[in-house]
């Protein structure tokens, strides 16, 4: 049986420790889980607001403004729903031992990049190459 890894609240992954060791994996799992929880709480609040917010607004301009606000809120929630799916995929990669490695090159993704964007699947260099290729094809 594997010993439980203790992680302090102020822990930050460091370059001088083994890449994707138990502490780093626990750190990123916690970061992803908290992010997902925050997104789901926001979604729950939105749903409650939409259910409670059904009102009869006689002024056409006010009604249009409220509908625009609701549409914007729903688009935001849709983006967050997609983000939750990416978070779930990152958590699966942690479970499978693939987290932190570039899907394109297999090289480690920098800890700074993962800390800033824990759902990253490409190293910075691979991401830039991907974006350049995407831009070239979009211009065609």
Helices and strands, in N-to-C order? HHHH
Count every beta strand, where a strand is a DSSP E run of 2 or more residues.
0
Query: What's the Cα radius of gyration?
Result: 20 Å
Count of helix runs = 4
Distance between the termini: 56 Å
Low-confidence stretches: none
Q: Give the CA-based shape.
A: flat
Q: What class do helices, strands and sheet pairing give?
A: mainly alpha
% residues in beta strands: under 5%
Largest beta-sheet characterization: none
Helix content: 55-70%
| Average pLDDT score | 88
Family: Belongs to the DksA family.
Domain DnaK suppressor protein DksA N-terminal: 24-94
Organism: Profundibacterium mesophilum KAUST100406-0324
GO cellular component, one term: cytoplasm
How is the secondary structure organized here?
Blueprint lengths: L21 H31 L7 H37 L14 H6 L7 H16 L1
Helix pairs in contact: 1-2
Descriptive report:
With 140 residues, the protein is mainly α. The chain is 64% helix and 0% strand. It has four helices and no strands. Helix 1 packs antiparallel against helix 2. The longest helix is centred in the middle third of the chain and has 37 residues. It is flat, with a radius of gyration of 20 Å. The mean pLDDT is 88.
